[in-house]
Amino acid sequence: MEFDPLSRLIIISNRVSAPKGSDSGAQGGLAVALASALREYKGIWFGWSGDQTDEYTGQITFQRNEGVTTATVDLEEQDIDEYYNGYANRTLWPLFHYRVDLAEYEREFAGGYQRVNERFADTVQPLIEEEDAVWIQDYHLFPLGEELRKRGATNRLGFFLHIPWPPRRLLSILPEAQALVRSLFAYDVIGFHTDEWLHSFRDYALAELGARMEGDELILDDRRVKVMACPIGIDAKEFAGLATSTRGRLAFRQMRDAAVGRDMIVGVDRLDYSKGLEERFLGYERFLNEHPEERKEVTLLQIAPPSRATVGSYQKIRSTLEGLAGRINGGYADIDWVPIRYVNQGYPRDVLAGIYRAAKIGLVTPLRDGMNLVAKEYVAAQNPEDPGVLILSRFAGAACQLTDAVLINPYSAEEMSDAIMLALRMPREERIERWTKMMDVITREDIGWWRKTFTDALMGPTVETEQEQTEPA
Q1: Transmembrane segments in this chain: where (predicted)?
Q2: DSSP one-letter code for 384
Q3: What is the pTM of this model?
Q4: Which residue among 86, 163, 173, 297 is the one 20 to 30 A from 14 at the CA level?
Q5: CATH for 9-233+449-459, options being 3.40.50.300, 3.40.50.2000, 3.20.20.370, 3.40.50.1950
Q6: Looking at 97, 140, 162, 193, which residue is catalytic?
Q7: Does the annotation count 199 as an active-site position?
């Protein structure tokens, strides 16, 4: 039976944030993307509210904001400690971002992770109707599809991973690796941002589980799953509009006035060790050291809202960055110039768009990133007649699409310094040519394209239906 186009889409993610438009500084790229996807269908966005309760009851709070219905539950303190702060952020996140040195393996973490996924399955199952398609998001909920199958769900189930998938040898460090990968065969479709992450997943399934490949499907025992690379996008036209909105223009003028004729370099990142902020500061310091004639001609604005403040490794990076910014400013600043402005807070999307537009250089240099939508937002916000230059890490998923950025190795301070100098001296004609090609990509493969590409695969005819159609009567 083919999927009924009038059926609903159920999206499930760890956190659910009711859409608040451009006034929400905390609204991340994924939240905006999922809300956009849900507006195309009748459906529900289910997940954790972010709040704590004394005892998990499964009580659901429903809200409707800007055309999106959300259904949220509160979690117990132990759930938050073990499932979220523990297994998700101290085990899976560092390992999947190649930081084996920071990954922690505790039975309590793994147990709490499994318990919360079971609780999610128990709670959301009654909300799912027979013809619904279910789209589960990210590394917090790997086993949720399997738990829904155990509870009798026969719906089309899709899973999308928004972070990198590590190479086979790296994933094998995880004690639960085989069980985790095996559980993913409960899904009908699995999406990754890049071919690299897809190939790493496929390599593990083939080599460690004995799966086999037929076309774009992996087969293990009696289950087959379609695997696809489908890079997430932004609403490029909408974001470009934000840059010239009232608040966008105001932010642009404020940045230009504050720069006092200097060129501004901007970085906007969640405070996380995967974003390469320490390496960015050191690369910028090398630039200042190697090009003293440029010292008072540029300034770096680094916006880094704090995240996961209760996890020790995040407290450490904040302390390290504060120390680095202080040392660099102390060593190079003058009475009328400070080389780094380091800000630990978030800003609304329209304000950010104006800031991006005012920046001569967008510095997006993660050490490892599933996609990185800041790179795309920076491009979308530029003035077509006088665009800035995007300097982008080769290890961001966005580098696979934005090949006309200045691509660098973020571990190399020398390469970063050279890239900054190249960008500052780049002729206007070359900046326009690079920007035009990148803008074409992010406009063509935008958020609507991403949503449609994945949901078309999820909501298409089932494998069994295709087989039935080819069998003789």
Answers
A1: none
A2: T
A3: 0.92
A4: 173
A5: 3.40.50.2000
A6: 162
A7: no
